[in-house]
Design a protein that fits this description.
Helix content: 55-70%
Largest sheet: 2 strands, antiparallel
Number of strands: 2
Strand content: under 5%
Bound molecules: zinc ion
Order of helices and strands: HHHHEEHHH
Shape: globular
Structural class: mainly alpha
Number of domains: 2
Length: 175
Amino acid sequence: MRWFNHILISGAPAALIAPSLVPVVVLGATAPDWLEWVSGALHKQLPHRGATHWVAAWIVALAGGALLPGVAGSVVSAFAWGGLSHCLADSLTVTGVPFSPLSDRRFHLLGGRLRTGGAGEYGVSWSVVLVCWMLAGQFTGSDGRYIPFFFNWSQRYQDGIATAKEWRDNRMKFF
Ligand SMILES: [Zn+2]
């Protein structure tokens, strides 16, 4: 799957939950591929969609991040979420990914029917963005904090800042 789509799929939920961690998530979302380049540069070339694409390894990293306290835990979790989303997204494609070193079988989600670079993967990634954007409309922070994707007119209306007309005119403006 293309990096553009990996970034959308991992970044949109992250923007919803923890906007400040989006850069770390993006780094993680591309890591399974760039780690292969790093391994090549170190003359220990890993096979494409090999060890860096083990789904189980990223799940373990995510669980580890959840156990770590403070900022370190958040950063590890964000990076691992990015990596896990990359592997799950790749598992939608025909080639699939390895689940763990214990099995030679390729792991596929939803039958693994997408072709890399095809319209299907763009459809999946924009669907994720759309769902996150709709969810963002539900998470209306009353403290006026930054709301990703969604300029929060309904909250402003409720707060009495915007008039009903302003809200109606602006609620469908997203960016
Ligand atoms: Zn990949």
